Amino acid sequence: MADTQALMERLESAVIRLESLLSGSHRSAGMECGTVNGINGGVAPYIEAFDRLINGSVAEFLRNSKVLDGDVKTHNEVAILLKPISDKIHEIQTFRERNRGSTMFNHLSAVSESIPALGWIAVSPKPGPYVKEMNDAATFYTNRVLKDYKHSDLRHVDWVKSYLNIWIELQTYIKDYHTTGLTWSQTGPIASAASGLSTLASNQGPPPPPPLPPAPAPPPVFDTENTKDDTTATRSALFAQLNQGEAITKGLRHVSDDQKTYKNPSLRAQGTPVRSPIKSHTLNPTTPKTPAQQSHCPVLELEGKKWRVEYQEDKNDLLITDTELKQVAYIFKCSKSTLQIKGKINSVILDNCRKFGLVFDNVVGIVEVINSKDIQIQVLGKVPTISVNKTEGCHIYLSEESLDCEIVSAKSSEMNILIPQDGDYKEFPVPEQFKTSWDGCKLVTDPTEIVG
Questions:
Q1: pLDDT exceeds 50 at position 283
Q2: The whole model's pTM is what?
Q3: Is residue 306 part of a domain?
Q4: What strand order describes the sheet that includes 406-410?
Q5: Pair 278, 254: CB distance under 8 Å
Q6: Disulfide: which of 106, 228, 376, 390 matches 144 by Cβ 3.0-4.6 Å?
Q7: What is the pLDDT of residue 252?
Q8: What is the H or E stretch that residue 176 is in?
Q9: pLDDT tens for residues 38-50?
Q10: Integer distance in angstroms from the first to the last C-alpha of the chain?
């Protein structure tokens, strides 16, 4: 309690000093701008707008944070007390990492992943889109908060709305007053402040963007093929590929730096389609290859901290190397292909894929499979969680290290988990049918086996 009281006294003292300085700056700015800003001796409109933002959205968010209490309240006190901006951002992100076991981890993540938006003052020429990108990062986690609490505790819903509203109003403010970057008065106290911030920006640069969480999935693209897929033959071929284990990499060729678009911007500037340099082959050599009917070029590239693997077809030797812990992989609309991810990566999303094999070493977050069909996944190292949703046919090969993996499924069928035993894999089906009954106090749901 003594420490808390001391912190609050420091905060009050800092606020008094800031208000005093801000008041003097307002007066100077008003006198200095004069009729240039369309006012006579008043406060510049961009200062008034910023005050409204602080006293409106930000104040409401802080009130809602205090109502939730716990880690969320502490998290925001850190944000208020620490300076300069770059140190605040670092401290907030570190706080999230230290509290991964918190019941409010999604709340902390929403703030941690979007707080670099405060560095918009060092972004030019268009800081608005940068703030929107940070807002999108927050939305990924606030959606999880809403899912958990929207029917049980509306305080969390209010917290989400008030937090996202900060970035929405900040975008509006930037659009109205600083569209191409922060603007300053050329003389007086404001110019001095600008000089100080410019020095800070030149020394430290803008705060780095956070690791992007899996982006919202593009609108689902549904197959319009009238013919039935040869599921059995394709699945057998994928089994053969995946059962090689680590030997699957023997036929792979390394992608040199001059073939990677993220290290060769000239490739993208020339409009050259991004293609894997690895020779592709069909899963079933006896089946005639049908020309691909698609309007998109295949993609295999690193964009920021996100690996994009899109529209790959009939390529069983796709490879991602040089991975980092903060990177994520997003695999979209790929078919009849196999991808291996070397090293350790944050998370993987596999969306709208058909007859696709995924082999990876280690994932520290989650592997998600969505809206897909005939998927094979092999874990060579560790992964804490695999989520399967709206998927038909999914075989998951676990390693000895990943036997503690949690597998969550919904609206999916033909799922099997393969466990290593005596040098081979033993297959265990995931229940698709359940029986629910009332025991007098609550509903009890148990898996059932289909007989006959």
A1: no
A2: 0.39
A3: yes
A4: 299-303, 306-310, 328-332, 347-351, 366-370, 385-389, 406-410
A5: no
A6: 106
A7: 57
A8: helix 154-177
A9: 444 456 676 677 7
A10: 67
